[in-house]
Design a protein that fits this description.
By secondary structure, this protein is an all-alpha fold. It folds into two domains: 1-55, Arc Repressor Mutant, subunit A (Orthogonal Bundle); 67-207, Tetracycline Repressor, domain 2 (Orthogonal Bundle), CATH 1.10.357. The protein is built from nine helices and no strands. The protein has helices at residues 11-28, 36-43, 47-54, 57-84, 90-107, 112-123, 139-153, 162-181, 192-207. Helix 4 packs antiparallel against helix 5, helix 7 (139-153) crosses helix 8 (162-181) and helix 8 (162-181) runs antiparallel to helix 9. The radius of gyration is 20 Å and the shape is elongated. The chain starts with 10 loop residues before the first helix and ends with a helix.
């Protein structure tokens, strides 16, 4: 893997253009059928520039995958802060968890980034890092676990294992919604909210202090 370099003035824009071009080509043409020449031409840079930044095509795929994952993680962290930070009243907990879930289903699970991530996993998994080597593999769940631990510290939840609580929450809300409906956009499908509400209530029956 190439050594990370200090970016020159203007280099950040080139790197962003290469990543955007690679993402589009990998999705439309497939990883195996996309060439570094095509990525360079679409990004309007030289082939040498692509190699200077990323070394090879597989490393470029990893960079695209990580960029998408970072965007999704940022959405999770922002939504956790907006909906679940600073809660002290037990009566606020259920509506706050419902609001968090409704926003995640629309802002994350129905986003272009999530679709891209899923397509890469389904079509290019052999070229991606092993799941154990992906820095972002567990990051959203860990972020949720940290928030649940904070709610436990505030006296609202009883959470012996924060990461397990996050896994349970996901299974009861997003997991059920995706399994039942195949999609999870709360703004487009009125069936999403009842599933989310019941999932949150099941979670609270298990974890409310």
């Amino acid at each position: 893997m190439p050594t990370e370099k200090t970016l020159r003035a203007g280099s950040a824009q080139k790197r962003a253009a290469i990543l955007a071009s690679a993402r589009e080509l990998f999705l439309t043409e497939g990883f195996d059928r996309s060439s570094v020449d095509a990525v360079a031409a679409r990004a309007q840079v030289s082939k040498r520039t692509v190699y200077d930044y990323f070394g090879d095509k597989q490393t470029l795929l990893h960079a695209v995958f990580d960029e998408v994952g970072q965007s999704l993680l940022a959405t999770v962290r922002r939504t956790l802060t907006d909906t679940l930070e600073g809660l002290t009243d037990p009566a606020e907990l259920e509506p706050a968890l419902v609001e968090f879930s409704m926003r995640i289903t629309t802002d994350m699970l129905d986003s272009a980034e999530y679709t891209t991530l899923q397509r890469f996993v389904n079509t290019a998994s052999g070229h991606l890092p092993h799941p154990d080597d992906r820095a972002l593999t567990n990051a959203p769940e860990e972020a949720m676990g940290e928030r649940f631990a904070a709610l436990a510290k505030a006296g609202l939840l009883e959470v012996p294992d924060p990461r397990l609580a996050a896994d349970h929450f996901i299974a009861l809300t997003f997991g059920v919604t995706l399994s039942r409906l195949g999609s999870a956009n709360a703004e487009k499908d009125s069936r999403v909210r009842p599933l989310i509400v019941e999932g949150v209530r099941a979670f609270l029956r298990a974890y409310r202090r």
